[in-house]
């Protein structure tokens, strides 16, 4: 277990009572404003002292109120990356990066400077002052500074929230590399389902100070009702696929997933690249028979594994498509008229343009 949190804390009229464990390399904390995400991050980092409970990071107990253990902030070895990078304006990038090390005892400094610079692609920025960097570059430097302090855990509290979509897209691949090659587990606070679909290996969903769900990213994202606040059907399945080939004449790429081949708008990655793809529940329709004469390019056969009926007009139908878990959001009327029940074989139909390009990320093969 990388992270174990079981705390109770009151502040103002707000009661946080959060309990979860995560073994994921990137754990996303997701929930509406005021649900307690930052309070949890601050409790892990030592900025908030919870009244009751226990926090364990990489088998090290940071807080245990029953045992009277409270490791002070500066002894925790927790890295922080804030929404605005908080770099020192009077120091160049190299000195900003090295600043991270000053608080780490010499014998514990194991992170290699050049490796971090390379991982984050900031070698060409070393002599520059923060005021001359773009928002995305500043965040990459802030991440590097936190990493060079040799943390046991990296806390990122909405690190991309102040960036526009283009800057976010520029920084995602670096966070993916950090997740897959950085060797430091990450806790990321995010409001965006697309962002966590792309980056998270584990997800903790919070609501009003309580954990409403936690588990692996593919498992949690399939339950669309957990993400109701982000839009009626923002959630969907995460599947792992590889780039099979490109059809340049049509501007398309064919991916291979366990569920079958998937045709998507062209992705500029070489054949063989592993990717995670988010298939939103609202973009999938179901058919009892293999359709013919249909313009949609993706038709995946599968079995209904369960039906999530939360009482509203739409229902989430969980599918097992040769080992890939998909979810389709259909009307309650369709469930009844088509006679959809667990065990029935169906065809999932997805338009190729329905893939969420924002959520298309690379994935380490052992991830999913
Ligand atoms: N120092 C404090 N004193 C009193 N109440 C506080 C304090 N800090 C936060 N709160 C309250 O605790 C609740 C949880 O806040 P928190 O910042 O953890 O939420 P959040 O999920 O991170 O929200 P956001 O997404 O808006 O950042 C809120 O109701 C907030 O008003």
UniProtKB/TrEMBL annotation:
PROSITE patterns attached to this UniProt entry: ABC_TRANSPORTER_1 (PS00211), ABC_TRANSPORTER_2 (PS50893), MOP (PS51866)
Residue stretches making up the Mop domain: 293-359
Domain ABC transporter residue range list: 2-233
Keyword Acetylation: no
Pfam families named in the record: ABC_tran (PF00005), TOBE (PF03459)
InterPro entries attached to this UniProt entry: AAA+_ATPase, ABC_transporter-like_ATP-bd, ABC_transporter-like_CS, Mo/tungstate-bd_C_term_dom, ModC_ABC_ATP-bd, Molybdenum_import_ModC, Mop_domain, P-loop_NTPase
Keyword terms, alphabetized: ATP-binding, Cell inner membrane, Cell membrane, Membrane, Molybdenum, Nucleotide-binding, Translocase, Transport
Molecular function GO labels: ABC-type transporter activity; ATP binding; ATP hydrolysis activity; molybdate ion transmembrane transporter activity
GO CC terms in record: membrane
PANTHER family per the UniProt record, alphabetical: ABC TRANSPORTER I FAMILY MEMBER 10
Annotated family: Belongs to the ABC transporter superfamily.
Name the record gives this protein: Molybdenum ABC transporter ATP-binding protein
Gene name for this UniProt entry: modC
């Amino acid at each position: 277990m990388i992270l174990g949190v079981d705390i109770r804390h009151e502040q103002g009229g707000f009661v946080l009572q959060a309990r979860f464990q995560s073994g994921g390399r990137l754990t996303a904390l997701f929930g509406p404003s005021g649900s307690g995400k930052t309070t949890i991050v601050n409790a892990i980092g030592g900025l908030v002292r919870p009244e009751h409970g226990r926090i364990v990071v990489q088998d090290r107990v940071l807080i245990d109120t029953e045992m009277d253990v409270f490791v002070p902030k500066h002894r925790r070895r927790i890295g922080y990356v804030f929404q605005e990078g908080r770099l020192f304006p009077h120091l160049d990038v190299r000195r900003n990066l090295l600043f991270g090390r000053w608080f780490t005892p010499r014998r514990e400094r194991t992170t290699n400077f050049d490796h971090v610079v390379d991982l984050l692609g900031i070698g060409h920025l070393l002599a520059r002052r923060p005021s001359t960097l773009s928002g995305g570059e500043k965040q990459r430097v802030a991440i590097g500074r936190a990493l060079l302090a040799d943390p046991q855990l990296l806390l990122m509290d909405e690190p991309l929230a102040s960036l526009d979509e283009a800057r976010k897209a520029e920084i995602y691949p670096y966070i993916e590399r950090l997740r897959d090659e950085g060797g430091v587990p990450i806790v990321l606070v995010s409001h965006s389902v697309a962002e966590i679909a792309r980056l998270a290996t584990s997800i903790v969903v919070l609501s009003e100070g309580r954990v409403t769900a936690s588990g692996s990213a593919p498992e949690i994202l399939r339950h669309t009702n957990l993400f109701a606040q982000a839009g009626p059907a923002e959630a969907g399945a995460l599947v792992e696929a590889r780039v099979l080939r490109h059809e340049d004449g049509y501007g398309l790429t064919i991916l291979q997933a366990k569920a079958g081949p998937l045709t998507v708008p062209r992705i500029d990655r070489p054949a063989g690249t592993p990717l995670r793809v988010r298939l939103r529940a609202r973009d999938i329709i179901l058919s009892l028979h293999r359709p013919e004469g249909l313009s949609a390019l993706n038709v995946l056969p599968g079995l209904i594994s369960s039906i999530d009926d939360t009482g509203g007009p739409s229902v989430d139908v969980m599918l097992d498509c040769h080992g890939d878990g998909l979810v389709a959001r259909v009307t309650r009327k369709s469930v009844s008229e088509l006679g959809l029940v667990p065990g029935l074989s169906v065809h999932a139909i997805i338009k190729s343009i329905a893939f969420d390009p924002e959520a298309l990320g690379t994935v380490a093969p052992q991830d999913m």
